[in-house]
Every structure is written in structure tokens, then in C-alpha cells.
Amino acid sequence: MRPGPPTIDPAAYAADGYAVIPDALDPATCAALRARAAAIVADFDPQAAGAAFTTDERDRTIDRWFLDSGSTVRCFPEVGARDAEGRLRVPLDRAINKIGHALHTLDPVFAPVSDPARWAKVLGAAGLEQPRPVQSMYIFKGPRLGGEVAPHQDAAFLHTTPITVTGLWFALADADRHNGCLWVCPGAHRDPLRRRFVREGDDTRFVELDDTPLPTEGWVPVEVPAGAAVVFDGRLPHRSARNVSDRPRPAYTVHYIDAGSAWSADNWLRL
Ligand code: FE2
């Protein structure tokens, strides 16, 4: 018998700002997503992502590589993975930090997993009446290589009025505190949005909105097995530590907004 559509407890989600969906993806789907990501990387030309230029030109090219990635599928090398000429210092299959940002619409393997209809009950319980995916990322977090992600709120980057951005984070391998699992601050999604990442033309900057510090206590690791998903509120502070293990910590994330909320025109991502 096929399991029913995945769902979560709305009251627990409202209290904590996140919920775990066990068995969101079966092992074959996890394997297919990992294989597809490896194939995208194998096709990647590292010289394309801003290299072999002067430092200034390279910075501008890297910025463009990011700013134009919202409607395409691009690989983003790890910081330090390339030398000044853009040549890789490490093998290609270890050199990529992430793939973004339109796997959910453009990639035939990732798109079905990202379909909001598939997660309608979960996203509905999270408060999204008309969920619309706007951004997706495959994150490699390689063994002993994947770096720390500092505490932040996703609504800083994907802002709407009212704030509706909600993340679905799929663990494609067991994720624990040793290989850099997600950490969250339960309940802290009720605190204000601290800052926004805004775009003016080709420039981006942070705008401070509220000087309440992000929490320094109360963080909990969300250790989940392969195939589990974590759904979380766009205001929930979250982070991940370095991967200090010999295991990768691959994850796929999709961010949804409610189609009834107004997309902020100065988001980096142009819809
Ligand atoms: Fe995030």
C-alpha cells in the first residue's frame, strides 16, 4: 500500500517554526537526485564561473554568475577551490559547493520532487494556501570540505509581504552533527526579521531592519536520516556547521512562497 500524502502537525509547526517529515523521499529518489547532481557537475566548466580575469573583473563575473542564476541551473565552486587562473585545485567532483537556483523548474529529475502539489498538505499546514516554488539549491557539503553556514533567516533573501517564504530541506544522506546537519532555534521564528539582502541593479547589499541579535542559545541539531525532509518558516534562524566527517551531507532545498503574498521587487531573485 502506498503511504498517504506527507503531512505535519500544524500546532507543533506553529510553536517550533519547523517540523520533520520522515520518509519524505524513498531511497531510489535520493539516489536519483544525487546521481543527477553529479552529472550536472561533470558537465560544468569551472572557467565559466568567473576566472582568468583580473581580480575586479573576476569579482564582477562571479557576481553576474550569481545574479543571473535565478532562472537557470549553475554550479557554484567552493571558495578556494580554484586558483587565480580559474583552474581547480581539487577534483571537480569535490570542488562544487552548490547548484542553483532553478532546478525546480528546469531539471527533469528535480522538478517532480519540487512540485508543490506533492507537498500540498505539508505546505498547507505551514500556512501556504497557494504554494509557489521560487528557488532551489542542491548543496554538496563534502567530506571535510563543506563549510559552515552562519545563522540567518531565509526571508532576508526571499522577501514577500506578508512574509511567507517556507523552506523544504531534503536530506539525501543521513545528516548528523558530525557531517553538518541543520541546526535551528525552535520558536525563534516569532522574532522579527533582522535584515534583508536587497538588489539595486547589479549591486547587492544588506539592509538592517531590526537590531535584536540572532539567538546565541537554544539551538538544536536536526539530525535526520536520508530521505527525511525538514520544513521550516522563513523567519526561523538556522545554520549548519562544517562537515568534519568523512561522509558527504548532500541536501536539496526548495523555497516556496504563497502566491497571494507580494514578491519584493528588490529581492536579488527576479521572478
Ligand atoms: Fe537558509
Which band does the percent of strand residues land in? Answer: 25-35%
Structural class: alpha+beta
Please bin the fraction of helical residues: 10-25%
Task: Report the count of strand segments.
Answer: 15
For the biggest β-sheet, the strand order reads: 1-12-7-14-4-3-2
What is the H/E string?
A: HEHHEHEHHHEEEEEEEEEEEE
The unique ligands bound to this protein are: fe (ii) ion
What is Rg?
18 Å
Low-confidence stretches: 51-55
Q: How many H/I helical runs?
A: 7
The oligomeric state is single chain
Backbone shape: globular
Q: What is the CA-CA span between the terminal residues?
A: 39 Å
Biggest pleated-sheet summary: 7 strands, antiparallel
Chain-averaged pLDDT: 92
In short:
The protein is α+β, with helices and mostly antiparallel strands and 271 residues long. It has helices spanning 10-16, 27-42, 55-67, 92-95, 103-106, 110-114, 120-125; strands at residues 18-21, 73-77, 96-101, 131-139, 149-152, 160-161, 166-171, 182-184, 195-200, 203-208, 220-222, 229-233, 238-240, 251-258, 262-263.
Keywords:
271 residues; 15 strands; binds fe (ii) ion; four-stranded antiparallel β-sheet; 7 helices; seven-stranded antiparallel β-sheet; alpha+beta; single chain; globular
Structure explained in plain terms:
The protein has 271 residues and is α+β, with helices and mostly antiparallel strands. It has helices at 10-16, 27-42, 55-67, 92-95, 103-106, 110-114, 120-125, and strands at 18-21, 73-77, 96-101, 131-139, 149-152, 160-161, 166-171, 182-184, 195-200, 203-208, 220-222, 229-233, 238-240, 251-258, 262-263. The chain has 7 helices and 15 strands. The strands form 4 sheets. It has a 7-stranded antiparallel β-sheet. The protein has a 4-stranded antiparallel β-sheet with strand order 5-13-8-11, with no helix packed on it. Residues 51-55 have low confidence and may be disordered. The structure holds fe (ii) ion (FE2). Residues 152, 154, 238 line the site of fe (ii) ion (FE2). Fe (ii) ion is lined by residues 152, 154, 238.
